[in-house]
Amino acid sequence: MRGQPDACRCDPCAPRLEEGSEVPVIVHIPIQHRNRRFHPGTISTRKIGVWVESGRLARLGAMNDRYQRGLDRQKELGGPTAVRARVYDTLADIAPDLSRFAIEFAYGDIHSRPGLEAAKRELVILGILIVLGDTERQLEAHYQSALAAGLTSRELVEATLQALPYAGFPRVLNAMGIARRVLDEQHLLPVAH
């Protein structure tokens, strides 16, 4: 990848790239294309950031306050979990911006707002995910985040049971199975009553 002031020598870029300059940096990136080996693409931005998680390209684009707030909030909740990494990695070749959207919007804009502490937000999220159904990976990630935010295993079980009148037995049974798996992985079983 090119884009550093001393690396890009193409005609449009060379005259404009100076250390500390306010003009945008032009970055030339080879992009995988379905019928060709590489399709050249260009991104113009002031600040380029590349983050690599587990040896994979996790993000390319402008680092912004929303994204940084989202990353900071995820770190408070135990960091990007293996579950989230698997979800994002699975979709990186079809929707590479999806992880950035989740981090910026869900964590940078919403989860990091003042007014509710992280543990209470996680209870709300768990209730919604249980009612939605078919959210196994998200439930697993948020049970982990809820524990990292300070909720106890007993509180997670009670929050899951609280969804029963609203979500029904099938969804609560599925969610409780996921909660059990997370608690078992963290050596928090059996849950005291």
TrEMBL record:
<dbReference type="InterPro" id="IPR052512">
    <property type="entry name" value="4CMD/NDH-1_regulator"/>
</dbReference>
<dbReference type="GO" id="GO:0051920">
    <property type="term" value="F:peroxiredoxin activity"/>
</dbReference>
<feature type="domain" description="Carboxymuconolactone decarboxylase-like">
    <location>
        <begin position="96"/>
        <end position="180"/>
    </location>
</feature>
<dbReference type="InterPro" id="IPR003779">
    <property type="entry name" value="CMD-like"/>
</dbReference>
<protein>
    <recommendedName>
        <fullName>Carboxymuconolactone decarboxylase-like domain-containing protein</fullName>
    </recommendedName>
</protein>
<dbReference type="Pfam" id="PF02627">
    <property type="entry name" value="CMD"/>
</dbReference>
<dbReference type="InterPro" id="IPR029032">
    <property type="entry name" value="AhpD-like"/>
</dbReference>
